[in-house]
Amino acid sequence: MPDPSLPDPEPRIPVSVLTGFLGSGKTTVLSRLLRNPAMAGTAVVINEFGEVGLDHDLVARSDESVYELTSGCLCCTLRGDLIRTLAKLRLQRSRGEILKFQRLVIETTGLADPAPILHALMNPPLVRDYRLGAVLTTVDAVNGMHTLDQHVESVKQVAVADRLLLTKSDIADADDVARLRARLDALNPGVPLVETLHGEISPALLLTAGPYEPESKHEDVQAWLREEAIQRHADDGHHHHHDVNRHDDHIRAYCVVREAPIPPEALIAFLDTLAMLGGAQLLRVKGIVQVAGREETPAVVHMVQHVPHSVVGLPGWPSEDRRTRLVFITRDLPRQMLEKLVDSLLGPG
Q1: CA trace torsion 281, 249, 142, 255 (10° rounding)
Q2: Is residue 118 part of a domain?
C-alpha cells in the first residue's frame, strides 16, 4: 500500500517521435506545430546527422525548449546519447532548472533507423519517466517512391508509424501520388494518412495519441524491435567509436562555412549548378546564408535529391552566429568535387 506521507509520483511524460527521410518536411511540420497554442509546454529534442546542425535554428519557437543532439544520428551506438539527454532533461525539470514541460517531441535525423529509438523509449531506464505516444512519419510525395526504392531506412520509418504525413502533394503528379499512397498502405495497412500543405497539421495528431502499440504493427516491425533488443544486450558494456559525419561507407555529411556575405547572383548560380551536377548523389542540402546587401535578413536554402526549393528569407538571425552555413548530405559524392564547386562559385573560405 502506498505511503500517504510520500508525494504521488509524477506521471510519465508522453513522447512523440517525428521521423521521415531527408527533406521530407519534418522541420517544417515541427515549426508549424510549435506555433500552435495547444503545443505550449512542449520540449523538443532535435537530432541531426553531421557535426554542424541547423534545424535547431530554423524551428520556430515561443516558450518551448529546444535541445539539440549533435553527436550524430540517433541510430547505432548513439542510442546512449538519447538516454542520457532525456534522463538529464527529466532531472533538470524536477529541479526547476528548465521549463516544466508536459510533453516531449523528438525529431530524428532523416537517416535514422527508428527501431533503436522506439526500443529505447519503451524499455528501462527511459520507460520509468517517459511514455511513447505518437510516431509520425513524413513522406515526400515528389521523391517518396524513389526514396523507398533506394533507402531501407525510409521503409522502416513508414512501417513503424501510427500516423503518416504526406507532404508536397500539391506539387507532385497526381498519378504518382496515387501510386505512392498504394505503396504506403501496403507497407503500413490501415494507418491514417494525412496530407499536409506547408507543414500544417492539427496538434491533435500528437495530443490524442495513446500509448504506442508495436504488437498492432506488421510482423516486420516486431522483428526489428526484437533484433534491437538482442543487439542492445550484446553491446552492453562495450564502447564503439562513431564518426558523426558518416552514416555508412557511402553516405557522408559535409559543412561549408563562409564568413563574408555571399553575393545574391553567386548564390543563385551555385544552387543552379549544384542541382545540375549533383544528381541522385546529392541527398540533401540545407543552409542559412548571409546575403550581400541583406545582411540582417538571412536566406534559407533547401535542396532535396537535386531538386531545389525556393529560397526564403528570415526576418532576422535566429542566433548570434551570422555566418553562412551550408550542410550537404551525399552518397558517393567526393568531398573534393564539392569543395571545388563551392570555392569556384562562392569564393574560398
Answers
A1: -70
A2: yes
Q: What is the pLDDT along the chain (349 residues), one digit of tens a residue?
A: 445 554 546 789 999 999 999 889 998 898 889 889 999 888 888 876 544 445 545 444 334 456 655 444 333 345 677 888 899 889 999 999 888 889 999 998 888 889 888 999 999 999 999 999 999 999 999 999 999 999 999 999 999 999 999 999 999 999 999 999 999 999 999 999 999 998 999 999 988 878 898 888 878 888 888 888 887 666 654 444 445 544 556 788 888 899 999 999 999 999 888 888 777 788 888 889 999 999 999 998 988 876 777 788 888 998 889 999 998 888 888 888 888 888 898 888 6
244 belongs to a structural domain:
no
Contact partners, residue 178, CB within 8 Å, separation at least 6 = none
Inter-CA distances, 27 with 47, 158, 200, Å = 11, 17, 11
Q: CA–CA separation, 284 vs 260, rounded Å?
A: 24
What domain range is 327 assigned to? 251-346
The Cα 174–Cα 141 span in angstroms is: 10
The answer to whether residues 300 and 198 belong to one domain is no
The amino acid that residue 65 corresponds to is S
Q: Which of 180, 201, 235 marks a domain boundary?
A: 235
Do 118 and 66 sit in the same domain of this protein? yes
Q: Is there a domain that residue 43 lies in?
A: yes
Rounded Cα distance between 15 and 17, Å, is: 7
